[in-house]
Amino acid sequence: VETSQSLEEIAEAKGMFAPRVTWVHHWTPGLFSFRVERPQSFRFTSGEFVMIGLAQPDGKPLLRAYSIVSPAWEEHLEFFSVKVPDGPLTSRLQHLKVGDRVLIGRKTTGTLVTDALKPAKHLMMIGTGTGLAPFLSILRDPETHERFENIVIAHTVRQREELAYHDFLYEEIKTDEIFGELLRDRFTYYPTVTRGEFHTRGRITDRLRDGLFRADLGLSIDDRPDTRWMICGSMAFNKEMIEILEGWGMDEGTRSNPGEFAVERAFVG
Ligand code: A2P
């Protein structure tokens, strides 16, 4: 601790929370996840993000937007982060240990919520890198399963080691006590790797354009009107996905004006 003020005091003064870290997991040298205790009054909608951070030496909060990985009903809050070697925040966050405190804002927000989408049969959640985070929340929200019959999470990364949550999405969720039965026949995990060996190679955008994605899922162009999309990744990826979806005649939705797809623009991968 570099400051004379404790993180709890700083949180109090700024109207934030300072929960303790309960779990840390490093996926690769560049990616990790962590959990904090959920403050009792903390509420959010699955798919939203919140400001997270630490205190600077002068006591000012250093914050960044993080999508919440855990669903809205879960007792902890989980986050998935890159480790940027010279990043002001992540170079410090990556050293978090169980028992440390982090700053968390009170206000959650975001456009990647099921309310932004018109009702349909299929929900495709397409992400790159840590853009996977909000989909892990949405996947485990009962509301999602009331609204959509068939759910797909596509995750594109450079190297297969970066497929964080792979075992969870590929295997564990299907035997999960709560979601196992519900998801077994209705959920498909679709990982792709762009710069290394893997059974499914290449950018998801290319697979969407050339029809491989829908062929792999057993869908046809006729299923498009009954399909909704959620997009979360780097700016270049988001832009390309919007071009593809708009090219198919789809409109972006918001909470007040639901559409065919939703994009998280606050996210910086
Ligand atoms: P690629 O390896 O071909 O650049 P990053 O780590 O740069 O954020 O990228 C994460 C993943 O997203 C990588 O697999 C990368 O593929 C892919 N990606 C980056 N930009 C785009 C884009 N415009 N469209 C589709 N995929 C992209």
What characteristic shape results from the CA principal axes? globular
Low-confidence stretches: none
Q: How are helices and strands ordered from N to C?
A: HEEEEEHEEHHEHHEHHEHE
Task: Estimate what percentage of residues fall within beta strands.
Answer: 25-35%
Total E-strand runs: 11
Please give the radius of gyration in angstroms.
Answer: 19 Å
Report the bound ligands by name, code or SMILES: adenosine-2'-5'-diphosphate
Give the CATH superfamily of the largest domain. Answer: Nucleotide-binding domain of ferredoxin-NADP reductase (FNR) module
**Share of helix, binned:** 10-25%
User: Between the first and last Cα atoms, what is the distance in angstroms?
Assistant: 28 Å
Structural class: alpha/beta
Number of helices: 9
CATH architecture of the largest domain: 3-Layer(aba) Sandwich
Biggest sheet descriptor? 5 strands, parallel
Spatial order of the strands in the main sheet? 9-8-7-10-11
Average of per-residue pLDDT values: 95
CATH topology term of the largest domain: Rossmann fold
The level-1 CATH class of the largest domain: Alpha Beta
Number of domains: 2
